[in-house]
TrEMBL record, chain A:
Belongs to the binding-protein-dependent transport system permease family. The lineage of its organism: Bacteria, Bacillati, Actinomycetota, Actinomycetes, Streptosporangiales. One of its GO terms (biological process) is transmembrane transport. This is Iron(III) transport system permease protein. Its main location: membrane.
Length: 599, 344
């Protein structure tokens, strides 16, 4: 025993001079609190009687209960609050996947493997739909196809005298099409990357052995693409699972509910127990989806090797099919970018949709000082304080969250790469990745469970900016910690060790060596979450109150009021900002959207 | 003088990266830690630098205890006043050559004017003072290597540690840098500890060589002594190129009959000669299997009894494949090893 005391003193001396291990521990505790604790809280809420439910549950508040499980899965309303939304979620997911596969996969093949005109342009332009907020498309859809079932301005077709049937205006079909238009770039990018990465020698060998180009595609390229395809499928499913805006806008008028909107509804109804169970279900499905995906990704790595040199001509010559196929691609581009944007834009400058008379055009919805009839928002969007306040809130909240996220990500990378505490490092790597498994809306619900009431020294954070910042930072942490780890790994620990040898203390090394060298990585780690955070809706919709309106929630509020033109105007603003930021970010950080796909 | 006493290092597993190392490195010497990759030589170097901590044992420099696990003493790397040149140089990409070289002096709060003067002096010593305002990315590999060296020379370290600094250079530059390092060592008088897996590098530059294998020290000796009197089979095989012949079977027995009792035997290629043997030498009938001329030397592969031997000659050999020759070696040049592989 007495022998080990100097050893401990020795260890302590080492730790005192290198705070990495201590920093790792602090980070680990922090992340457990921000990532793991909310999940624990939401699980515990699902199994405990909530205030107000004593009579129904027949138990005292706080007691353990299976009441909410029964209510969600087996009671008379289970059909309404769970099974139907679950079925709808499955239908929407599968439909969106099919749509995205067809469009995205087809476009990928066309751009990567044929001599269709304007390939470079198409490769960039077909990604644009993903840079727009996902519910841009649903607002455009509503503007076109809305019928009298919902209040407010009539749709363009209805104004023209065409009565659009409900199934075309609301519910599964429009949700699938609009989500499909938003998510096909996912498939386009993943499959396109895979097509480029397949070792051309594999295909060349088949050609040399006598296979035709078509046979090669069917028997060699196709099977090699399978992992990329399944990965794309699962990613889209995971996204659709947690998406809120589109099913809310297009589903609500027809009472078409999916799990995410059901969760939102339960939270708004203050049925915390039910909401917790729903959040739990979404978390479980989300985790399963990503775990399956990770398994497949491993297979893919085993499968597809980085391409060799000089391939045979891999580009299929379309000859007479060149221009017809080009027009198909152009059509996709028009339908997914031009039509939605133009629809929204036109709707904001016309009093009555679809009436092409000069006196029907107006800038009132943008500029008017007062708009009679719009009680909740009685002026043009650029007037009054609301838009600017929301923009300011968005900027501050998303900005703060991104900075926190970027710094945390780099610190996680630092601790992981320094390797002074391997076990802490491994734990950090995993726990910072955990939010990736959880659809944002469920994570927001979980955070509400934890932070809605005062717990110990932490005050109730519901409705505060702090909560928004925290949750947004945590949900984007997987991306920035991954890029932080990558950046630190690439740098290695030697530059810092060299400074240490030269006599630099830890603060001096961080200030003069590590941070200056990692400036670029830090910018990336901040900018990517910022860009995706600006158009984030699913998370913030759960957490904002009227006091803290963001751009995204403001547009939903306007949708709720039925002020179509105003809502469209706000979404256009978001789309403009989001597109510009994404474009600039790509230029600035020289990262492609493909690498930041998760965001 | 650097003293390592009972130094062991474990990375958590049952295997020790370094086990029970006792090593004394005299002041002003050029000590080479030589061994195959994974033998613990770099770990030893990093422990001397303080970048890694021994699991047990003591490290002292000139009587100052830097690490003593048993007494709970530890001096962090930034206070050890040593220099370390990394294998990949680890230059700071955001600082110029001058900025890199001045950094250590800045950390020591040396005034700006003197700092600049001393940095330029160090750069002049390694002959890159014409590229002071450039960034590392704009330098050639050889220049980067020199800046990495200048950066450490600038702080005038009592001990200069070099971790395979030449392995990323091409053959020509490596030859040049070997001579440079030797010159700089002689000019500065600093104690140098040099890690390499290249026995030629160790032989050509070091004043002392320490051979390690699997975390254990095998032998410490001046290079020529190590070459002529290897402590055991491992050192005998590792030091020298082409490596020592270590035959078995009837060929080994034939050599042992001449050289003395033992259970293993080795003979260097250059100790083998062809033609008429001296009296009392070991000799045997051989068949030439292949002749490999290399300009300045000739290597011949011989089939002898049930085994084969490589012979090296620095004079042109007038033999061809298939020819029968007599091969012989002086008795004193045949090394005999006991059952543990220790040289007898």
């Amino acid at each position: 025993m007495f022998k080990s005391r100097p050893r401990i003193r020795y260890r302590l001396q080492v730790l005192r001079h290198d705070p990495t291990a201590a920093m790792g521990l602090v980070l680990a505790v922090l992340l457990v609190y921000l990532v793991v604790a909310p999940l624990g809280a939401v699980l515990s809420d699902a199994f405990r009687v909530q205030f107000g439910d004593q009579v129904h549950a027949g138990q005292q508040p706080g007691e353990w209960t299976g009441y909410y499980l029964w209510r969600v899965f087996r009671s008379r309303i289970a059909e309404l609050i769970f099974w139907e939304p679950l079925l709808n979620t499955v239908v929407v997911s599968l439909g969106t996947v099919a749509f995205a596969l067809l469009v995205g996969g087809g476009m990928a093949l066309l751009v990567a493997r044929t001599d269709v005109p304007g390939r470079r342009f198409l490769a960039g332009a077909l990604v644009v739909p993903y840079m727009l907020p996902s519910w841009t498309f649903s607002l455009a859809w509503l503007t076109l196809f809305k019928n009298e079932r919902a209040g407010g301005q009539p749709g363009v077709l209805q104004a023209a005298g065409v009565r659009t049937p409900d199934w075309l205006a609301y519910g599964a079909v429009p949700i699938i099409v609009t989500l499909g238009l938003h998510y096909f770039p996912f498939v386009f990018l993943l499959v396109g990357n895979a097509l480029r990465r397949i070792d051309s020698q594999l295909e060349d060998s088949a050609r040399i052995l006598g296979a035709s180009r078509a046979t090669v595609l069917r028997r060699i390229t196709g099977p090699l693409l399978l992992p990329a395809l399944s990965s794309a499928v699962l990613l889209v499913v995971g996204r659709v699972l947690g998406t809120f805006g589109t099913p809310y806008i297009l589903g609500l008028p027809a009472d078409y509910r999916v799990l995410s909107t059901g969760l939102y509804q339960s939270i708004r109804d203050r049925s915390t127990g039910v909401a917790s169970v729903l959040a739990g279900v979404i978390v479980i499905i989300g985790v399963l989806v990503v775990l399956v995906d990770m398994r497949l990704m491993r297979e893919q790595r085993r499968f597809v090797t980085v391409g060799g040199k000089g391939a045979m001509d891999r580009v299929g010559h379309l000859r007479r099919g060149r221009w017809p196929l080009w027009s198909v691609a152009a059509g996709v581009l028009i339908l997914s970018v031009v039509v939605p944007i133009m629809t929204l834009l036109l709707s904001t400058v016309m009093r009555t949709p679809g009436v092409w008379r000069l006196d029907n055009f107006t800038l009132d919805f943008w500029l008017a000082e007062s708009l009679p009839g719009a009680v909740g928002f009685p002026h043009g969007v650029l007037r009054g304080g609301e838009l600017w306040e929301a923009a300011y809130n968005s900027l501050v909240i998303v900005g703060l969250a991104s900075v926190i996220c970027g710094v945390l990500g780099l610190l996680v990378g630092y601790v992981v790469v320094r390797g002074t505490a391997p076990r802490v490092a491994a734990f950090l790597r995993q726990v910072s990745f955990l939010p990736y498994l959880i659809p944002g809306i469920a994570f927001a619900a979980a955070s509400l469970s934890l932070f809605a009431v005062q717990r110990g020294p932490v005050p109730a954070l519901y409705g505060t900016t702090a909560l928004l910042v925290l949750v947004m930072a945590v949900t984007h942490l997987p991306y920035s910690s991954r890029s932080g780890i990558a950046a630190m790994t690439q740098l290695g620990r030697e530059p810092e060790e060299a400074a240490q040898i030269c006599g630099a203390s830890w603060p001096a090394r961080m200030r003069r060596i590590v941070f200056p060298i990692q400036k670029g990585a830090l910018v990336t780690g901040v900018v990517l979450p910022f860009v995706s955070g600006l158009k984030e809706l699913s998370i913030v919709i759960m957490l904002t109150t009227t006091g803290t309106q963001l751009l995204t929630t403001l547009s939903i509020t306007l949708v709720d009021y039925g002020y179509t033109q105003l809502a469209n105007a706000v979404v256009l603003m978001i789309a403009l900002v989001s597109f510009t930021m994404t474009y600039l970010a790509q230029r600035l950080t020289r990262s492609s959207l493909a690498s930041g796909l998760g965001g | 003088m650097i003293t390592l006493r009972g130094v062991s290092k474990s990375y958590g597993g049952s295997d020790l990266a370094v086990r029970d190392l006792d090593l004394v490195i005299p002041t002003g010497s050029f000590m080479c830690l030589l061994g195959p990759s994974g033998c613990g030589k770099t770990t030893t170097l990093r422990m001397i630098a303080g970048l890694e901590q021994p699991s047990s044992g003591t490290i002292e420099v000139d009587g100052r205890v830097l690490d003593s696990v048993e007494r709970g003493l530890y001096v962090p790397p930034e206070k050890r006043r040593m220099g370390l040149v990394f294998q990949n140089y680890a230059l700071w990409p955001h600082l110029t050559v001058l900025g890199n070289t001045e950094f250590g002096l800045r950390m020591r709060k040396v005034p700006a004017a003197e700092r600049r003067e001393r940095a330029i002096e160090a750069l002049r010593m390694v002959r890159v003072d014409d590229a002071m305002e450039r960034y590392p990315a704009q330098l050639s590999g050889g220049q980067q290597q020199r800046v990495a060296l200048a950066r450490m020379l600038a702080i005038n370290p009592s001990v200069l540690l070099l971790d395979e600094p030449l392995s990323n250079l091409d053959a020509r530059l490596r030859l040049e840098m070997r001579a440079e390092l030797k010159r700089i060592h002689e000019e500065s008088g600093t104690t140098v500890v040099f890690v390499t897996h290249d026995q030629l590098e160790a032989m050509t530059m070091a004043t002392d060589v320490a051979v390690m294998e699997a975390g254990r020290l095998q032998q410490v000796a001046p290079p020529m002594e190590m070459y002529h009197r290897p402590a055991n089979r491992f050192v005998a095989e590792f030091v020298g190129s082409p490596p020592m012949n270590l035959p078995s079977g009837a060929l080994a027995e034939s050599l042992l009959r001449c050289a003395g009792a033992g259970s293993g035997v080795g003979v260097r290629p250059e100790a083998l000669r062809l033609g008429d043997p001296e009296p009392g030498a070991w000799q045997e009938e051989a068949v030439v299997e292949a002749v490999l001329p290399a300009g300045s030397s000739w290597t011949v592969r011989l089939r002898v009894l049930d085994g084969e031997l490589f012979a090296l000659s620095f004079r042109e050999l007038d033999v061809e494949a298939g020819q029968k020759v007599r091969v012989w070696a002086r008795r004193g040049q045949v090394h005999v090893f006991d059952a543990e592989g220790v040289r007898v």
